[in-house]
Specification:
The relative contact order is 0.11. The protein has 2 domains: 175 residues, Rossmann fold (3-Layer(aba) Sandwich), CATH 3.40.50.720; 139 residues, Orthogonal Bundle (N-(1-d-carboxylethyl)-l-norvaline Dehydrogenase, domain 2), CATH 1.10.1040.10. Strand 2, helix 2 and strand 3 form a beta-alpha-beta unit. Strands 3-2-1-4-5-6-7-8 form an 8-stranded mixed sheet, with helices on both faces. By secondary structure, the protein is α/β, with parallel strands linked by helices. The site of 1,3-dihydroxyacetonephosphate has 13 residues, from helix 8, helix 11 and helix 12. It is found in: Cytoplasm. Belongs to the NAD-dependent glycerol-3-phosphate dehydrogenase family. Keywords: Cytoplasm, Lipid biosynthesis, Lipid metabolism, NAD, NADP, Nucleotide-binding, Oxidoreductase, Phospholipid biosynthesis, Phospholipid metabolism. Pathway: Membrane lipid metabolism; glycerophospholipid metabolism.
């Protein structure tokens, strides 16, 4: 496909702002849409997003706006960076302004709850003229905004689209790898959040580093089995958006899912509130288990997370249930 000159970034939270910086550093003409006027003013004026990226002054100026039509005007590609559960609504809102055939890169990590659809399928329903793509991998917004180096996967059904998007976003601090596996990239991104809650709970409950590593490894088995059942490629599951992101989020308090898990672990049962920060795994746990059931894939750790979050199981009982499952050979 032709070179990508102008990119619209939809969503002015931590990741949307960081990705707008990535695109600007890669030499793209960037317009960032945020719904909150104070955020737009701070980005345009002080080169900051104090609500979502506190303490970071950007190395580049960005053009932000509260007007969707202005942000979308002439965009060759769109980065959709609002929470997973808002994808259908926001895709519907940008639909009137989206150029036919423009790639829409899904940057949220989750599965739609009501429908059980991956976000690329949500996009196909809400914005059928767009070409779905996904960006995922080990990448904390604050690190990326600070220009710390990382690598991610960018996937699209047509690998030449993934190649073009990778070229459009690459810079010395941000290295995308192109992939044709749109399903695998999304399954990894959604499941690692659920598993990070489990690992955080282990941390918060004081069950030790050995338990956390064991849970991460068995969690990877869940992620791989679900991915394989949905048609993911093995190299995606062991790659940046699968194992890479799982390792990051299951071991770092910088992760909101892991931090949510720590709070859960300290409480022993599901906390009443999330403390305001987005933890996507909370929304994906049960729907992932339901998808697994439909495909004959058991997800015991994700199931335990869903049951604890749903209030039907305490953490201590969840641990006992996992540890006393019938013994089997490792696979
Ligand atoms: N923060 C991070 O390090 C990373 C986040 N992600 C993913 O990116 C997605 C977004 O996360 P963040 O930007 O970090 O969250 P955030 O909480 O920092 O920001 C969310 C943004 O979405 C906006 N928003 C919420 N509901 C909306 C709606 N209905 N319509 C329009 N805008 C709406 C909020 O106003 C806010 O600007 C999540 O799925 C997350 O898993 C992916 C990689 C890294
Ligand atoms: O996806 C992320 C890093 O790759 C961010 O993780 P959290 O949403 O748990 O903060």
């Amino acid at each position: 496909m032709a070179g990508i000159r102008r990119i619209a970034v939809i969503g002015g939270g931590a990741w949307g702002t960081a990705l707008a910086l990535v695109a600007a550093r890669a030499g793209r003409d960037v317009a960032l849409w945020a719904r909150d006027a104070a955020t737009v003013d701070a980005i345009n004026g002080a080169r900051e997003n104090p609500r979502f990226l506190p303490g970071i002054t950007f190395d580049r100026g960005l053009v932000a706006t509260t007007e969707l039509e202005t942000a979308m005007r002439g965009a060759d590609a769109v980065l959709l960076v609002t929470p997973a559960q808002t994808t259908r609504e926001v895709a519907g809102r940008i639909a009137p302004f989206c150029l036919p055939g423009a790639p829409v890169i899904l940057a949220a990590k989750g599965i739609e709850r009501g429908s059980g659809l991956l976000l690329s399928d949500v996009l196909r329903e809400a914005l059928p003229e767009a070409v779905p793509a996904a960006l995922s991998g080990p990448s904390f917004a604050a690190d990326v905004a600070r220009k710390l180096p990382t690598a991610v996967t960018i996937a699209a059904g047509d690998e030449t689209v993934a190649d073009a998007l990778s070229a459009a976003l690459a810079s010395p601090s941000f290295r995308p790898y192109a992939s044709g596996d749109l399903i695998g990239v999304q399954v990894g991104g959604a499941l690692k959040n659920v598993l990070a809650i489990a690992c955080g709970a282990v941390e918060g409950r004081g069950w030790g580093a050995s338990a956390r590593a064991a849970l991460t490894a068995r969690g990877f088995v869940e992620l791989s089995r679900l991915g394989a059942a949905l048609g993911a490629r093995p190299e995606t599951l062991t790659g940046l958006s699968g194992l890479g992101d799982l390792v990051l989020t299951c071991s770092s308090e910088q992760s909101r899912n892991f931090a949510f898990g720590i709070a859960l672990g300290k409480a022993g049962t599901a906390p009443m509130a999330q403390g305001g920060k987005l933890a996507e795994g909370v929304f994906s746990a049960q729907v992932a288990v339901d998808i697994g059931k439909r495909h004959g894939v058991e997800l015991p750790i994700s199931g335990a997370v869903a049951a604890v979050l749903g209030g039907s199981l305490s953490l201590d009982d969840a641990l006992e249930a996992l540890m006393t499952r019938p013994l089997k050979r490792e696979s």
